[in-house]
Write a structure and sequence with these properties.
4-stranded mixed beta sheet, 11 helices, globular
Length: about 350
Amino acid sequence: MDFALNEEQQMLQEAAQRFLTENHPCTRARKALPWSDPLQRDLWKAMADMGWNSLLLPEEQGGSDLGAVEASLIAESAGQNLLNLPWSSSAVLLALLEREAGVQTLPELSDAVQSMSQGRSCWHCINDDQSHWDFATQSSNFIWIRGLAEQNDKLQLAFIRSQSLQKCAPALDTTISIGITPVVPTTWHEISITQPAKERIRSTYRLMQASELVGVGQAALTTSTSYAKERMQFGKLIGSYQSIKHQLANMWMLLDNARLSVMYAAAAIDSKLHDQALACAVAEFAAIDSALQCTRSSIQVHGALGFTWEHDAHLYLKRAQHLATRLGGASTALRSVESIALS
């Protein structure tokens, strides 16, 4: 399989990196702006205008009809810049639910997708087993999902407005707001999606979180490398010392392996290869392991500076830990690899 990006994919990757670096640097991520802030809504509208929110939608719905490979490029850039808007949840999970439902879709779901793709609303999808909801104040609406991870269960959706989340819990990752599951009268709507389609939707969404982890790890490596080229200690650049060189080299190798794993998994999903389940499990493990190790090493490379609240190193570490927890951790991913490989 050719892992080289084609010209259009390279342009998409460069545009995403440039746009988010200019419009959502770490200084903005630190502010954790709510959806009610005009700056946050303007950023979401700009992302929609660039076609990112309709990336996976078919052309007849105004989308680009692209695949998981292209989506993973944006997700990686989102992780690299600590984006605190639920792009993967809205543009990937929500869009795939609508796409796979086809003619059996719900009017409420179609309206949500149309509003999201035009940048008028920002939806975050929550599994029914989550007691703490991400992006509590940074989403305009939520979709509560039942049965996505379970086999043979009916897939049900509940549409929840963000105003229902009154109480916010302290968050490890301070760039993302956390809310407690609301206690509100809930109307569940059932949609008909086949089991293979459910598995594909879930795998693709989890792969986007793995892509974000790769982006977080890349940001940690980039800042560490830059610091090692500038910081003088005992009359020499710290990057000239073997201990620093080895840490940076290990970080690069871990990230390279994770990025290639994610790229293959995304291509396997798009091509519907027989090993896509194994590829996604491997990608999750590689992304979690690399991001956690890279963000921890970044703090070590920065020395005392890396432990300060003012430096961004702890933000990368906390985002990596947050995403890893949402995916179930490295041990869960490794068990999935073993289970699939031995089945």
